[in-house]
Amino acid sequence: MSYAIIGAGKIGTAIARAFARQGIEVAVAGRRPLDALVAQIGPSLVPRPIEDAVKADVVILAVPFAAHRDIGRAAESWQGKIVIDATNAFGVPQEELGGLPSTAVVAKALPGAKLVKAFNHLPADVLAQGAGTPQGGRRVVFISSDDDAASASVAALVDRLGFAPIELGKLGEGGLLVQARGRTWGQLVFQDLARFG
């Protein structure tokens, strides 16, 4: 399975570091040159143009929420791809989202993709600390999707990256706990939790 991260800001970089710690190759695409990032993190990061990165089997969106439409136009087809939505729509008016969870709005721009919400509830500096916590145990990453198989696949990736996956169910149900609605954060956003044992 091939992986790509679109977005080389703080969240994208933190996720890229998690891949590098496990020696998992991942394509990285962004708006700025990536040579320094690759030199800093290591050879498991492969810089790619966005048009190539979207060809991966699993694409992680680590871009500002408003950029999702541009990313949607970058692929010839999203059919069958798993897209991990690490964006946050904080401050986006509910009317603009049509009353939908933000990930459901992202899904409309990526027709045929299997959307999974993950990696968005932790601040970048916490996510960058990696999977381990100071108290021991593994840092939790919440997962939500309307596609059970995609959710399970992302849970397996999260586990492989060393984090503890916790599936919250459907986007419009448990997934609302990790999504912003207007100027209000979901109840599990910013919760840095650990799983022991």
TrEMBL record:
Residues 3-88 form the Pyrroline-5-carboxylate reductase catalytic N-terminal domain. Keywords: Oxidoreductase. This is Pyrroline-5-carboxylate reductase catalytic N-terminal domain-containing protein.
